[in-house]
Design brief:
The chain has 150 residues and is mostly helical. The protein has seven helices and no strands. Helices cover 59% and strands 0% of the residues.
């Protein structure tokens, strides 16, 4: 049962979050990579609504079942590129923050694939999906109802 329904959400809240989402989606980052990040954060945070959404988005992008089912154990598989592995490691570290700064060993490898501008977008994208998962877990919106738009 939903704790907070769409009609209960303050006017403008989702619209303003969607403005940030559109800003990220229009960045130089590949949409497929962004969706992998979003699904990974949803998995890490145990957000069923977001897992459903981003799994469906990746399926629409022709992501394989093998990679989708293995994302939760990405470190133990050979299915992800080095670039994806660097991003997934950064995603995991930024999603479960420690009290200290982000270690250089997690940041520096990003520089092999991304400019500092792109790393800024990536950091915002990870932060944004963390925000969405926390909202959905609090609101308890029903998973399974998301449909991918054309």
């Amino acid at each position: 049962m939903e704790r907070i329904t769409y009609k209960d959400i303050p006017e403008g809240m989702f619209e303003n979050l969607m403005n940030i989402e559109n800003f990220i989606n229009n960045s130089p980052l590949e949409m497929h990579l962004l969706e992998i990040v979003r699904l990974r954060v949803a998995q890490k945070n145990g957000c069923a609504y977001c897992v459903d959404m981003h799994h469906k988005e990746l399926k629409k992008m022709n992501e394989t079942d093998l990679r989708l089912s293995s994302l939760c154990v990405w470190e133990e598989t050979p299915y992800f590129t080095e670039k994806e592995r660097v991003v997934l490691k950064f995603t995991d570290v930024l999603t479960k923050l420690s009290r200290g700064p982000i270690p250089d060993e997690n940041y520096d490898p990003l520089l092999n694939f991304f400019s500092k501008e792109e790393i800024s977008y990536l950091t915002l994208a990870i932060s944004q999906i963390n925000t969405w998962t926390r909202l959905m877990k609090t609101f308890q919106l029903t998973p399974g109802n998301y449909t991918v738009s054309n």
